[in-house]
Specification:
Blueprint: H1 2-10, E1 15-25, E2 30-37, H2 42-51, H3 54-57, H4 71-79, H5 90-100, H6 105-123, H7 127-136, H8 140-152, H9 155-186, H10 191-194, H11 199-204, H12 209-227, H13 232-240, H14 244-255, H15 259-294
Antiparallel strand pairs: 1-2
Length: about 300
C-alpha cells in the first residue's frame, strides 16, 4: 500500500516534510512514514490512514509539536478554512480519555488524601486547604471516561469508571470519618467548628439551584478543556469544587453525628457527579457535531473509535 499512500499524502497541501523509509520497521515488518501535518487537517489525514488499513496492519504514532518554522507551512495555513486550525484532534482526545480512565492504587490514594485535606479545611474553615484538596483529587479522569463511554455505549469502560468512583469516594469518606472520630475523641475540635460557625461546611452540604449551575458549568468547561488541550490542572481544580469537598464533609458530618449535614453532603456529591457525567456526554456529542460541520472529516468511518 506504500505507493498509494505516498500519492495520497503528496496530494494533500497540509502534509509537509514527507519521509519514507522502506523496510525499516519490524513487528510488523514494513515501511515507515514520517511527516508533519497541520493541526486542522490532522483528523482527515488520520482517517485517510485508517482507510488504508494502517491501524490493522501497522501502527499510527501521533506526536504534537508547538512550533514549525516553514514558509510552506505558512502558505498552507493561510489556505485552510478559517476555523479548521482550532479543530480538536479526536484521536488525541480519545487517547487522553483512555489514559485518564486507568485506576492504579495511587489513584485511590490521591482521592483519600484529597478527602482528608478537605476535611481538615472544613474543620478549620480554611479555603486554602479546600483548594489544596481539589488540586490533589484525580476523579475527573474517571468522570470523563464514563461520559465518553456513555456516548459510545461502551458499558465496560463506564462500569469500571463508576466502580472506581464509588470505591474511591467511599474510601475518602471513611478516611474523613476516621479523622473526625480521632479529633473528636482527642478533644481538639476547633472552637469555631464546635459551636457551629462553619461557613465552608454550610456551603458544601446545602445543595440548591446554584450548586446545579456550578456543576453544569464545570461539566462544560471540563470537556472544552479536554478537546482543546487547555490547562488540565486548573480545570481539574474547578471540577473538584463539586466533588471532593462534599465527600470530605460527608465523613466529617457522620463523625460528629450531624446527620442532616451528612445527608446534604451525600446529595451534593451524588447530584454533582451525576450532572458532570450527563453534561459531559452532551458536550462530547455537541462538540463532535459542531466540528463535523465546520471541518468535515473525510471517510465513512470518521470520528472517535472505541479504544482498547
Amino acid at each position: 500500500m506504500t505507493a498509494a499512500l505516498i500519492d495520497d499524502l503528496k496530494g494533500n497541501d497540509a502534509v509537509l516534510n514527507l519521509l519514507v523509509s522502506p523496510a525499516r520497521t519490524h513487528r510488523p515488518t514494513g515501511d515507515t512514514f514520517h511527516f508533519d501535518v497541520l493541526n486542522g487537517a490532522a483528523n482527515s489525514v488520520i482517517e485517510q490512514l485508517r482507510l488504508h488499513g494502517i491501524v490493522e496492519k501497522g501502527a499510527i504514532v501521533i506526536e504534537t509539536e508547538d512550533t514549525l518554522l516553514s514558509s510552506a507551512a505558512e502558505v498552507a495555513e493561510r489556505e485552510q478554512p478559517r476555523f479548521e486550525s482550532f479543530a480538536p484532534i479526536w484521536a488525541l482526545v480519545d487517547a487522553q480519555i483512555r489514559a485518564d480512565g486507568i485506576y492504579p492504587p495511587s489513584w485511590f490514594v490521591l482521592l483519600v488524601i484529597a478527602g482528608v485535606i478537605g476535611a481538615i479545611g472544613i474543620l478549620t474553615n480554611s479555603q486554602i486547604l479546600i483548594v489544596a484538596a481539589m488540586v490533589v483529587g484525580p476523579e475527573y479522569g474517571a468522570i470523563t471516561a464514563i461520559a465518553r463511554a456513555g456516548t459510545r455505549r461502551d458499558g465496560r469502560t463506564a462500569r469500571r469508571g463508576l466502580i472506581a468512583l464509588g470505591l474511591g469516594f467511599t474510601a475518602a469518606v471513611i478516611a474523613s470519618l476516621i479523622l473526625a472520630l480521632i479529633i473528636r475523641a482527642g478533644g481538639v475540635t476547633p472552637r469555631a467548628f464546635e459551636i457551629g460557625v462553619r461557613p465552608v461546611s454550610d456551603l458544601i452540604n446545602s445543595p440548591n439551584v446554584l450548586s446545579v449551575i456550578v456543576a453544569v458549568l464545570a461539566g462544560i468547561v471540563g470537556v472544552i478543556s479536554l478537546t482543546e488541550s487547555r490547562t488540565r490542572t486548573l480545570i481539574g481544580v474547578f471540577i473538584s469544587v463539586t466533588t471532593i469537598p462534599a465527600a470530605a464533609d460527608l465523613g466529617l458530618s457522620v463523625g460528629y453525628a450531624a446527620w442532616h449535614e451528612a445527608l446534604g453532603s451525600f446529595l451534593q456529591l451524588v447530584l454533582n457527579v451525576s450532572i458532570l457525567i450527563v453534561v459531559g456526554m452532551i458536550m462530547f456529542v455537541v462538540q463532535r457535531r459542531i466540528w463535523n460541520r465546520v471541518t468535515p472529516t473525510k471517510g465513512p468511518n470518521a470520528g472517535l473509535r472505541p479504544g482498547p
